[in-house]
Amino acid sequence: MNRTDVLAEKQKIVDAVDKRDSEFREISLKIHAHPELGFEEYKASKWLADYLEQEGFTVERGVAGLETAFIATWEGSSEGPTIGILAEYDALRGLGHACGHNIIGTSAVGAGIALKDAFPDLPGKIKVIGTPAEEGGGGKVIMTEEGVFDDLDAAMMTHPGNKTMVLRGGIACVGATFKFYGKEAHAAGSPELGINALDALMNSFAAINSLREHFPDDVRVHGIVTHGGDAANIVPGYCEASFVVRAKTRKKLEGIKERVYNAVRHSTAAVGATCEIIEGVTFAERNNNVPLAHLYKANLESIGVEVLAPPKDGGLGSSDIGNVGQVIPTIHPYIRIGDGGGHTPEFEKDSKSESGMIGQNQATKAMAMTAYDLCVNPDALQSVKDSFEIWKSTKDE
Description:
This protein has 12 helices and 12 strands. It is α/β, with parallel strands linked by helices. Strand 3 (about 80-85), helix 4 (about 100-120) and strand 4 form a beta-alpha-beta unit. It starts with a helix and ends with a helix. One of its GO terms (biological process) is folic acid catabolic process.
């Protein structure tokens, strides 16, 4: 198929997305208006899965033991690759959809439906996969460990942002809860009988801060106090903190987190308290598949979207998409929806704004067109697979 024919075929996808744009906006804004925390996205996952089922997808719910996870499958007319389009739909505590997951979920669902509308005989299989609890819960980590993505030839999702980029990286991270146990006593009458769990907590913060000077530039450690005691006139017998530790790779993260944990253990022991460390799931570093990203970039540019190069240094976050990228070719591009920074009240407004809905429309088209490329162009698919195999053979060097 020559370039002119390919562009004509892809115009069918553009038209299909635009035809349903009002539907996509409606569901996205409904999710935005009803924010739900990770593993509790009962409304959002149902709305998205029901919509896919209504449009002819076969939907499996409660995937990998997660109530709000789903897989919606549509098969074309003949054998071909299986392409995953990943949906997120959890919100942030206190900030709602200040990470724009209403757009992520809706654009994934929209891409799958638009492909089916435009090419009912597409040579391939599309799986729209609902992945809960990206914001710390690590739904994709659990789903990766359960083999949910193993049968995919490639996977993609699009994250809203304040710049359009296709090769933005991400670093590894792990969350941990520190529980400090002391002994209550009257803070004025008999403080000598108490063991201060809050001192253990505060000393731990100070010890972690003292490590920062000696961490590499790509390491980030940040935490909050989630329980600091019950009353000022009682020696705190129980306190709690929540931390996230980040490093460039999972391998590097192992050493960094042990230094943090040791700082907490020794700070706790110094005041006679005890500490329980409860470690969460580990998010792997992001592995963007370059040929797949280039396909996506070309499709964005074909609809008039300017794509920027990512910054050379700094500013990296973490996402459980990194774990998916360790097992199959994956991309995690960004689409501009406004000027706000992620996890801010400004971004929460951007994710329901007109510019947010325009970005959602663009992301939907780009993912659908990229999935189309992989299904109809064997050379493009092989390039994506070859790049992933090369990465696997060299990743531990």
